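re: that chain from earlier
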Amino acid sequence: MRCEQARRQLAATDDPEALAHVAGCQDCFEALEADDPVVAQLRAAVPPLLPAPDLASAVLARWAPPMPTRTKVLRGATLILSLLLAVAVEGLVGVAPGRLAGLAGALAAWGQAASPWLVGLTTVRDSLLGVPALLVGWLALTLGCLLLWLRLATAAPSWRSAR
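^ sequence. v structure.
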């Protein structure tokens, strides 16, 4: 059925074939809706859309909850401690860069104390990267542990009461 025929038939009667055509044809639907007086009245009855006053500030106030007192205290304490540390370093080093060498020596001593751990870590890393089969085995062990954990975490317990 053509659009003009469907519109004429619907203006006269409720023809099922014309109704089926209008249901599938967007142009005919919009044309019938534009001629409908009820649609015009409904559109006229809708109030204009105006934004609410201070909507953005109200949303942002609810979105960002106030910071707890404990967090404020911890931030303040961290700030004060970092300032005290900066003042202490400045007091120790001062304007003489030679004093900084003493701090560098302390850092070097700490590095020497930690070097056995670092050597052990680099040995493990070199072993894993040097022998691909060992790396694949480590990966398989890790994935197996992960799958076991997932199985235990998602499975319901299946034990029965001892009574």
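Helices lie at 3-12, 16-24, 26-35, 37-45, 55-63, 69-93, 98-130, 132-154.
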